[in-house]
Amino acid sequence: MSKTVTTDMQRASQLLKLLGDQTRLTMMKLLQSHDCCVCEFVEIFKMSQPAISQHLRKLRDIGLVKETRKGKWIFYSINEDHDDYPFIQGILEHLPGQDGLVTELEAQGLRICCE
Amino acid sequence: MSKTVTTDMQRASQLLKLLGDQTRLTMMKLLQSHDCCVCEFVEIFKMSQPAISQHLRKLRDIGLVKETRKGKWIFYSINEDHDDYPFIQGILEHLPGQDGLVTELEAQGLRICCE
DNA sequence: TGCGTATATAAGCATATGATTATATGATAG
DNA sequence: CTATCATATAATCATATGCTTATATACGCA
């Protein structure tokens, strides 16, 4: 068993473990079509702000998402430059679209929009 | 958010969590090319027999693998009839082959072969 | 400058996970 | 029929995970 193969498997299982949480998985799927800020996620997942922050941190620590400040908000987006992005994308493609979550947010007038 | 979408995401994250363990992920990749019995896994992963059994149980409980008795041994194989097999397969395709593990086992004369 | 809002971090806690050891089951070979 | 080998399950334990509450940071704006 070569060292790099071990490393690759370790890396892959680490990525899969990150995606093996419904909140984070849904976040990633959502981010494929819409950048979102923290407070939007709080609304969407009906979860406390620190809980959301902590999920985002895990995704960010491993480089799957990146953050961009826009005015008062910090928007998160998918880091398509990640070495394993094709792998991630392959997984996300199999999942049902989560755009309904954003639509719902807009209907409530809670979508953050800053240009 | 429709109920089925939620269910699908829940199911997907559950599968990914299962694969988000290096031992189980490697088992699945291995099983794609070789059926293996419990004692082989014990050798390959240098792990206790109960530990291996428990990993296999998780994979079996969710239907990803199935077991077949052959003589004294119980061989595990991938359940290609699983509803989510295409999803799983898509993931495994991105991973480096683990055949070296079986080759190594054969070199040690530990490969179980029963016809 | 200082206040309010958005986000991050820290600490604590309950539950989940993965390993170990000990023991049970179950099929096979004598 | 019994002893043995392969595997499964149970009990236990240490660590990991994900949430909560409390607090810190950092930017935007009056």
What features would you describe in this structure?
- The structure is a homodimer of 115-residue chains.
- By secondary structure, chain A is of the alpha+beta class.
- Chain A has one domain: Winged helix-like DNA-binding domain superfamily/Winged helix DNA-binding domain (Arc Repressor Mutant, subunit A).
- Chain A contains six helices and three strands.
- In chain A, strands 1-3-2 form a three-stranded antiparallel beta sheet.
- In chain A, a hairpin with a 2-residue loop joins strand 2 and strand 3.
- In chain A, helix 3 packs across helix 4.
- The model of chain A has no long low-confidence stretch (mean pLDDT 93).
- The first copy, chain A, binds a DNA duplex (30 and 30 nucleotides) through helix 4.
- Chains A, B: Pfam families: HTH_5.
- Chains A, B: This is Arsenical resistance operon repressor.
- Chains A, B: Keywords: DNA-binding, Plasmid, Transcription, Transcription regulation.
- Chains A, B: One of its GO terms (molecular function) is DNA binding.
Number of DSSP strands of chain A? Answer: 3
In the CATH hierarchy, the architecture of chain A is: Orthogonal Bundle
Ends apart, CA distance between termini of chain A: 52 Å
> What is the CATH T-level topology of chain A?
Arc Repressor Mutant, subunit A
Mean pLDDT of chain A: 93
Spatial arrangement of strands, main beta sheet of chain A: 1-3-2
Shape of chain A: elongated
Q: Report the sheet-strand fraction of chain A.
A: 5-15%
Unreliable residue stretches of chain A: none
Biggest sheet statistics of chain A:
3 strands, antiparallel
Most extensive interface, residues per chain?
Answer: A-B, 33 and 33 residues
Tell me which oligomeric state these chains represent.
homodimer
DSSP helix fraction of chain A: 55-70%
**What is the number of domains of chain A?**
1
Structural classification of chain A: alpha+beta
Q: Measured on Cα atoms, how large is the radius of gyration of chain A?
A: 15 Å
